Amino acid sequence: MITLQPSPARPAPGVRRGLLVLGLIALLSQGWGRAADPVARHSGGILRLALEADPRSLDAGQVFSNEEGTVGFLLFNTLLEAGPEGGFVPVLAEGLPEGSADGLAYRFRLKQGVRFANGQELEAADVVHSLERCFDPEAAAVNLAYFTSILGGLEFLEARKKELATPRRPGHDPGPSRWIEPRRVEGLRAVDTRTVEIRLSRRDLGFLHVLTTLSAAIVPRSETTRLGRQFATHPVGTGPFVVKTWTRGARIRMVRNPYYFKADRPGPDAVDVLVGLDRSTQAMMFERGELDFEYYITDPDLTRFRRDPRMKACLKRVVGSTPTFAFLNCEIPPFTNRLVRVALNHAIDREAAVRLMSNRAVAQRGPLPLTVRGFNQELPEYAYDPARARALLAEAGYPNGFATTLWCNPKDPTWWRLGLFVQESLRKVGVSVSMREISYTGLIDASGRRRTVPMGIWDWVSAYDDPRDTLDSLLNGNNLSEDGCINNAFYSAPRVDELFRKSAAEGDPGRRLSLFRQIERQVVEDAPWIFLVQMNLDSLCQPWVKGMSLRGFWPPAHLEDCWIDR
Amino acid sequence: MLLRLVVRLIGAGVTLAGTALLTFILIHAVPGDVARVIAGSKASPEVLQAIHTRLHLDEPVWRRLGWHLSDLAHGDLGRSYVTEQSVAEAILIRLPATAALAGLAVTFWMLIAIPLGALTARHPGGWVDRSVLVLSTLSLSLPAFWLARMCQYWFSYKLGWFPVAGFRGFGHLLLPAATLALLFVGYYARLIHTHMAEVLNSHYVRAARAKGASEGMTLFRHGLRNAMIPVVTVLGMDVAGLLGGVMFVENVFALPGIGTLAVQSVFNLDVPVIMGTVMFSAVIVVGANLVVDLLYGWMDPRIRSA
Predict the structure, then answer these.
(1) Interface TM-score (ipTM) > 0.85
(2) CB–CB of B276/B90 below 8 Å?
(3) Which architecture does CATH list for B87-304?
(4) Using one digit for the tens of pLDDT, what is the confidence trace for A177-188?
């Protein structure tokens, strides 16, 4: 059985007397009658979490699953974090950055005395190195696209690609040293040990949001250079915890980072992460008090918990954080025809889809998650109108419908149920859909290849509070590629592509938001997706875990500021 | 005998090579790109290309197969694509959990199956015999994943007698081992029953009884000891199979054994780990077969000369 708090053995009488004397001395030295220290009251205990699978990596730049992200933020910090009302709160930075008048440069002053978990002091060179890694293909950073506005980043990337493509002399490994210019990213500079300057090649109002993501977390240059890819299993950051042991496939044990810069921060002494537990097992363990937090609960568990007052009190919800949709490949007939795409949107009863999802969703009316600032409540919604759908199909030249294939990952119950729902809805307007089962990785791979997947079920969580992440990643026709394309609808419209180019260079927040609104509206009109639902996130958190926050962005759960109070 | 050994060794080698080949073909029939598993859905083409280059995924499949087979022939299981851990190390780290689970399960089921088998052989056709027959059929028919889930639900979640899942010590092994034992106990009770019944009808047992040996002495000293010889052979093969990984039970109870490693590697498209776990299991089973085969030949001259 897992112990929540260590219960020390009862000391012998002699020892007890000694402890009593020591206790009295301690009380006197601190001042009799002083109010109890809130830090002391809330520190200690073990925070118990579980993951479905062993993390592939705990290197901040390589983490991408929700649960890994939650663990990642226990180990690493970023320069800034998202604040209230769309603002920012400095974390490793001393304050908010000084921006240049032209909006092309930011200067950050680092907090004094911040140390990594190995005791090494944080320096500006570490920040430069951390951001530079995002452009190094060998560092396998998962979100390179976020950083492309940094001056010289893409040139640096090209040089690294050339190095990788250059055959190396057998037996001669040049190691991490670089030999093709540029060896540095031009826009990243350590002005002094505590000042970093970041210059951009174009105005990018979303850039500060990018710096709040785990991809921009700061890692120690010395450790990543020394360990290379092994840093993924021996992560060192400035966060509140440090990995003490990682038994592959079984357990990750984290303890408090002795050098954590918020020394007076309350919090648990350790974090114990069990690995390899499916969601149902996690729910059982949570209910029995063996886990403190569960990231996502399944429908049957949620139904059960809603009926139990004790468990109902543990439920936490974020509404509409995950748009879930059926993408229609705009390069494969008949989806090349806009009328067909619009017709399919009219064939879907979104309210029925919400009910099918056990009311854990809201109807989707646009591409953006509800949680993203800038989501347009006024967007027109496709009405459920099968007669209109049939008429539009006839107008498009398909009076008798057509046959197509819907690719879906059956391992995800939400996706699979929505897939079957789409199949049934389209059957009613004469479109015959056959389901093709494929693994998640298989679907990523196939749907990113041009003219391969006609339609498929997909979802999305934005990484930060800005429309750019969702719109630019999923719908920007300027970024189409033959392989590995995230815009899996292969949607490209001249007007929208132009709006994307304008938004990338736009420095005025109001005008930029207006451009995104225009993109959003045009996307809804062009219907490259069958808009389905915006899924809620339902998590479980024990009442004794305080300070946990759920956000509508990746990763939704943040436990770095939590403490145990029981 | 030497010729027999050589023939068996060649047979074992062919079986192992066939297993490796078949596994490799099956893995590559599954759609998906391991680079996506490593770098995620947002990874740039440059990162994916770097991973492909590092893992030699751009090379033709036949060439990679050749490298794999060559490495395997040299006893090198390679490194995990996803975690970069040595596959041999990954297996060895997980072997104690699997071995402890298998050992405990074998102890449980033999402790139950031996008295049941002996008792039903002593009183064939009685209500105990018929009840055990029904229970054995049930135990043999139950799917492992269902039984494991039910045991977990009732004994851990509802009654709270055992931890729900995870592995932190001996206590976490009890329920998974009991579950595994339930799956095997019926078969072994019937196996012991069959051999025991045969032995109890043999001349030497009747002779022992005629000489006035007590029932306990007849049953356990003369009967059971002889009936257990073929049972131990089957047991050896089953233990070998269990060491290769108890996939369903390990996964339901989240035990960090070879079974969970194998399942996780399939989800990750981690070719070296899939190959490694399959080949580890194959080597144990083929090796156990070979040893039993040779021991039979050594013990029984009729087989040796066949």
Answers:
(1) no
(2) yes
(3) Orthogonal Bundle (1.10)
(4) 677 888 899 999
